[in-house]
Specification:
There is one protein chain. The chain is an alpha+beta fold and 99 residues long. The protein has one domain: 2-Layer Sandwich (Histidine-containing Protein, Chain: A), CATH 3.30.1340. The protein has a three-stranded mixed beta sheet. The termini are far apart.
């Protein structure tokens, strides 16, 4: 029983010193996932945007949009939609406008 307890304490102390690879806390990771999910749901729910293939990445509340859109208006609509989500600090676009 003592050996099990010692192993448990040792394991707990070792794992407590581990850091996340991304440098984010669990809470930040969950918040970022929620933001990404909400933006994706808004895109799918928008009749003008739902057929676009847009990648949404969120890191510490900063959103990056990647993909191809048909117009500058569609790009701006995606930016505005993303900014409307609670927790978004900034939006960066790597969107390509088709010609």
């Amino acid at each position: 029983m003592k050996k099990i307890m010692v192993c448990f304490i040792l394991l707990a102390s070792i794992s407590g010193g581990c850091a996340s690879i991304t440098g984010r806390t669990t809470g930040e990771t969950i918040d970022d996932s929620s933001i990404t999910t909400e933006i994706n749901l808004k895109i799918i729910g928008d009749p003008e945007l739902k057929y676009l293939k847009i990648n949404v990445d969120t890191f510490r509340g900063n959103v990056t949009l990647t993909g191809t859109v048909k117009s500058k208006q569609a790009e701006q609509r995606l930016i505005d939609l993303s900014k409307s989500v609670r927790g978004v600090k900034s939006v960066v676009t790597n969107l390509i406008i088709e010609k």
